[in-house]
Each structure stands twice: as C-alpha cells, then as structure tokens.
Amino acid sequence: MNELDVMDWITDQTTDESIEEVDRDELFELIDSKDFLAVVFYLEEDENSPKVLRHIELIDDEAAEYGITLVKCSDRLMAKKYGFRNPPGVTYFRKGKAINYDGDIDDEEELLDWLTNPHNMEMTDHIEKVNRKMFHKIRQASDYLAVFFYSEDCKQCPRVLAEIEHIDDEADGAGINFVKIDDKQMAKELGVYALPGIVFFKLSSKDPVIYAGDLNNEDEILNWLMTQKNPGGDVIEDLDGSKLLALIEDSSALAVYFWNKTTCNICNTKLARKLRKAKERTKERRGLVRPDTSAEVQEEADDADAANGSSSEDADNCEQCSSVLESLENIDDDCDRHGIMFVKTDDFSIAEHYGITDYPVLVYFEDNIPNVFEGSLDEEEEVLQWLITQKTEDRIELITRVMLEDMVEETQYLAVYFCKFLAKVPPAT
C-alpha cells in the first residue's frame, strides 16, 4: 500500500457521511444505553435501499445535534420484531420505548421534524433530558417551560431530581413542560452559577426567572411554578360567610364554584401524591402480571393495593376538584368580559343552605335565583357557553330540593316543572 492509498483512505474516513451499521447485539445495547435512538431498518437485497439511506444520511449530523443517535440495521428479524415486515422503516426509541415513523421515508426533512418534535421526544414517568439545541426548539413550542439544570458531578442533584420527579405530572397537568439539561455553561449564561438550579421560561416573556427557594421542598417548587404561570394571581376569588351571601343577594350574574378545599389540600400533600403514584405503579404491574408470576410478587402487589385503598376515593375526588378549578380559572377572564362574576367557596354551611352535598358543583345566581350546572365541569368551553346563555337568555332554572323549599316560602307566585333526567345505562354483559 503506497502513501497515496493511505491518504485516500484517511480522506474517505473523514468525509464519510454514511450511517453506522449495527448488528442485533449492538442494537440491543444501544436501545438500553441511549436516551434517543433512531434505527433505519432496511434490506440489503432491496434495490431501493441505497436511495432511502442516501436521503436519511443527509440528516444524520443534524439529528446528532439534537442528541439523537441514528443507525441502520439490515436484520430482517429485528425489523419484523418492531413492526416492519417489509422494510424499509424507521423506529424511534426514547429510553427504550419505541414508536414507528409512518411518514414519507424519502422526505428527510419531514423525518427530522418528526424525530425532533417535542411530543415525540417525551418519555413518560421521566423528566426529559435535552441538550441546548433541543431546548430552544421546545421553548419555541411551549407556553410555559421549567428547566432543571444539573451535572453528573453534582452530589445534591440526584436527590433534588428525585423530588421534582414527584411534581412532574402536576406541572404537566397545569400546562408546564419540564425538562432537565446537563450543561454548566448554559446554566451560567442564564444566571445559574451553582447547581442544581431551576429556571422558568414563559413564551410571552423574554426574561427567564430563577428559582431561589428550597430545592428539597417539592411542594414549594410546585407552588412557585404555579405562581410563575399566573404571577398576577389570575385565580378565582375565594369567598365565604356573610360576604358571599351578600354577593349572591346583590349580584345579577354570579357563578359560584362549591368545592371541598380541605380534601384537596390533604390530597395535594407530598404523602398523598406518593400514594397515588404508588397505586398507579401497582396497576401497571398488575397489567403485566403473567400466569406464572411468583406468589411473592403477587403478594407484594396485593399489599400495595391495601396500603393505597384507604385513600383512593379521596384521591379521586381531590384530582377531580383541583383539575376542575384549573379549568374554570382559564375562563375567569372571559366571564369578566361578559359581566359574570366568578367566585369559589368551601363554606359548607352555605352549600348546605342550597342543598349541595356532593362536590364539586357550579351554581349560577341571577338576582338570588340559583341554577345548577349539570354538564361536565372539566369542559371549560361548555361551562363558559352555559354561563353566557344563562346571562343572555331566559331559561328555566334547575334547582335542588332545598332551593325549591326556600323559593316556595319566599316567592308569591311560583311555577315548578318537575322532570326526571334519565341516565344512560350501559348494556348488561
């Protein structure tokens, strides 16, 4: 071999843009070790394979910039295992969890957009690890984004990460995306000089906000995130007692949300959230139990059920109550624009006065005349339209028995239409 051959070989290696070929064992190892892995399954004997691979090779480097490893595999059995009986096809692994690309495999730009789509990069039960480039893409697509900055050599970081993993679902439920980044330089650029740190980004604001509270207190972190999302306190006003009664008597358009705040506060504690998560994990485990599962594992699942069963009903009610409140707070400003005042209360005496025993419930008052909302409180648009209709149109009010008894005593002329709402009964199995 002469020096020209050596030079040509070196040049080929430095300019080679081909995707790395992996065999079955190497693929399994990559699936286990890579956060984001895209695999192109193809057949060597297929005459279309070279063209397909050339298209995908054009995005190999850019995918790597987003932290995505791109490889190719010609193992027919592996392709079949992941859903491709007739390759080519692309499977995307996120922490080992696979999804298949169903777009045009010859359109490399469409494939890159799909691979880097924040929704496709999400990994359930984990705060996603992203790099600088992926962060910028997620920030552009997120109204609210919280970033946990950490480093591998930080002793405190794993403990803090474990804490905020507990509130990831709550943050997501409030529309706040949560990611983690191992980038000390980026953290310093944003003003975080000591790790770990949490930074909040708002699409409508150019300047991020750095968390300065206790990083070991997940409840404090969650409250801070909610405050950053609504810094002006855009929440429904809380009233009770004589103030609420006076408002009901004097208002021509008032919506009152009755809820059990005590139960919600209990269920939002750190212990209750952990119990709910443990219950969810137990359910998942039960779904994966095979007939040959050992008695020991089965007994462990039963014990977890027993530990969580006592709080299941309260937890369900709490999640319903708090999620409804979040939905209603989204339409508070819309109600103001239509001249409808919106308040909330956990005053049981007032609730009982109107015959309310089940929570949550929404009641519209017009000149002290109540009307109970019977639809789904989770559907905020449905609630808003109902409230607007009550204010702008003449409708027959729906009232409880206690409300009727009061109106019979206080109203000189009263016509009552008695009706029965038929619930849909599922067919017998």
Can you give me a brief rundown of this structure?
The chain is an alpha/beta fold and 429 residues long.
Could you walk me through the main structural features you see in this protein, from its secondary elements to its overall organization?
This protein is of the alpha/beta class and 429 residues long. The protein has three domains: 17-120, 3-Layer(aba) Sandwich (Glutaredoxin), CATH 3.40.30.10; 128-229, Glutaredoxin, CATH 3.40.30.10; 237-262 and 317-410, Glutaredoxin (3-Layer(aba) Sandwich). The protein is 47% helix and 16% strand. It has 19 helices and 15 strands. It has a five-stranded mixed sheet with strand order 1-3-2-4-5. Strands 6-8-7-9-10 form a five-stranded mixed sheet, sandwiched between helices. Strands 11-13-12-14-15 form a five-stranded mixed sheet, sandwiched between helices. Strand 14 and strand 15 form a beta hairpin. Helix 13 (261-267) packs across helix 15 (295-329). The protein is elongated.
